[in-house]
Amino acid sequence: MIFIKTFILLLIFLGSIKAGKIIAKKYSNRVVELRNIKNALNMFLTKIKFTYEAIPVSFSEIGDNIPGTIGKIFKTASDNMKEKSAGDAWEEAIDKIDTSLTKEDREIIKNLSKLLGKTDLDGQISEIKLVQNFLNTQIEIAEREKQKNEKLYRTLGGIIGIAIVIILI
């Protein structure tokens, strides 16, 4: 009987630690995703500047080269461009794919849709650079939040686990 109780308490403690790590991981994932978006936009900028490829083709290639959810966003947007305008497809892909990005991050990225495929080359390049500047700010904010909150949630998970175990003893 005591073995079962100890085992259950251990599971509760380990579950609390795992929950804290999962919450903390969102902060790391946000930084990685923002950097991946910035890299993807650099690739897109290069492609439209030098190769003159169509936007769906560029997005598809970027989706193949960028890992994780950001690659999925570009792939989904590329697929959606068969039926919709580039801007609408981009917005829908951002809304559809689940990421660790905040609402503010998503809105900044969605700003790209305003001129995507609607203006000349210079207009699109300037819009991409503007979004990249906003992303730089968001990356700095995300890194500060990561430093502040990541350790907090990992520690908090352990403390809550210990508190639950003490209460149940």
* Computed Rg: 21 Å
The total domain count is 1
- Percent in strands: under 5%
Number of helices: 6
Order of helices and strands: HHHHHH
Can you tell me the residue ranges where pLDDT is under 50 for at least 5 consecutive residues? none
- The percentage helix is over 70%
By helix and strand content, what is the structural category?
mainly alpha
Mean pLDDT: 88
Shape descriptor? elongated
Number of strands: 0
- What can be said about the biggest beta sheet? none
Distance between the termini: 13 Å
Please name the defining characteristics of this protein.
elongated, 83% helix, 6 helices, mainly alpha, 169 residues, 0% strand
Structure description:
The protein is an all-alpha fold. It has one domain (2-168). 83% of the residues lie in helices and 0% in strands. It is built from six helices and no strands. It has helices at residues 2-51, 55-65, 68-80, 86-96, 103-110, 121-168. It is elongated. It starts with a helix and ends with a helix. The relative contact order is 0.17.
